[in-house]
Amino acid sequence: MRLHAGQFAMRRFEETIVQDYEVDSLGHMNVHFHEMRAHEAAVTLLKGFGVDAERIAAQGGKLTHDDMFNRYHREQFSGARLAVQGGVADANEDGVKLYLEVLNTEKDEIASTFIWGYQQINARTRAPIHLQPETVAACKAARIEIPAH
User: Fold this and answer.
1) What pLDDT, on a 0 to 100 scale, did the predictor assign at position 143?
2) Residues near 141 by beta carbon (within 8 Å), at least 6 away in sequence
3) What is the pLDDT at residue 88?
4) Calpha distance 88→96 (Å, rounded)
5) Which end of the chain is more exposed for a tag (fewer CB within 10 A), N or C?
6) Distance between CA atoms of 141 and 92, rounded to whole angstroms?
7) Buried residues in 118-145 as b, exposed as e (16+ CB within 10 A)
8) Which residues in the chain show pLDDT less than 50?
């Protein structure tokens, strides 16, 4: 299993298999499905630190991206076994930055990488809502290093 060195190892999320419907007319998995897998992992990871979009919305807020970097390294084909792994790259009162990678587990190769920043805002005014200090502390304690690719 490929894990990068950092203060903590990356968390591994559910393994999936590329389905025929995820393959586009060019014969490889559409980028939407890379992003979908990363998004599902991000939601799970953030909820683990108490950053829950549904709870934030119920309190009049919204969880939004404030930064996004996506890189697609290798094409994936129907039947490929993929897993997402990642963790918190940084956190402060303004938000959380995650690093996620979609990994072809059979080839032990990175399929795609994502660096996504999240912030909480007031849904009506769009003013920033700071993260709780205990949330920031928990995120920083589990921080991983973004690997060089």
Assistant:
1) 94
2) none
3) 97
4) 7
5) C
6) 12
7) bbbbebeeeebbebeeebbebbeebbbe
8) 1-7
**DSSP labels, the chain:** -----SSSPPEEEEEEE--GGGB-TTSSB-HHHHHHHHHHHHHHHHHHTT--HHHHHHTTEEEEEEEEEEEE-S---TT-EEEEEEEEEEEETTEEEEEEEEEETTTTEEEEEEEEEEEEEETTT--EEPPPHHHHHHHHHT--PPPP-
Measured distance CA(114)–CA(149) in Å, rounded? 12
CB 50 within 8 A of CB 128: no
Give 40-69 pLDDT, tens digit per residue: 999 999 999 999 999 999 999 999 999 999
